[in-house]
Amino acid sequence: MRFDDVVVLDLHGVTDKRAFMNRCVRALPLPVWFGRNWDALADCLADMREPMAIVVTHWHAYAEAEPDEWSVAQEVFSAAARASAAGLAVLLLLGGEPAGLEDRTGTPAQGSDDSPAPPAPPGVGE
Length: 126
Description:
Radius of gyration: 14 Å
Oligomer: single chain
Number of helices: 4
Distance between the termini: 38 Å
Number of strands: 3
Order of helices and strands: EHHEHHE
Structural class: alpha/beta
Strand order of the largest sheet: 1-2-3
Helix content: 25-40%
Largest sheet: 3 strands, parallel
Shape: globular
């Protein structure tokens, strides 16, 4: 299986389910009718038509603030990956920054009430 599309799901600042779902809307290619609940997330991820890898970053604060919700989120990711016909991989970044991965969450997706991500600071020497 080849994953042509890598999506960064940056959970920086996320500490509850509402913010988690908003961030999913912003980062993932979910349909506009996405219901912002666990079942809808599982269904939408499992029904993706193209192989996709999701790299989840900065998830620790959410896991600490809402361990039960984070457990459900992990179950949803796992179930969707198992059910995906196209191929879905969800990777949890354990530390550091996702070097070489583009964070595409700069502009909220249609239907997102999450504020836009702040612009990335310029690199050294720029």
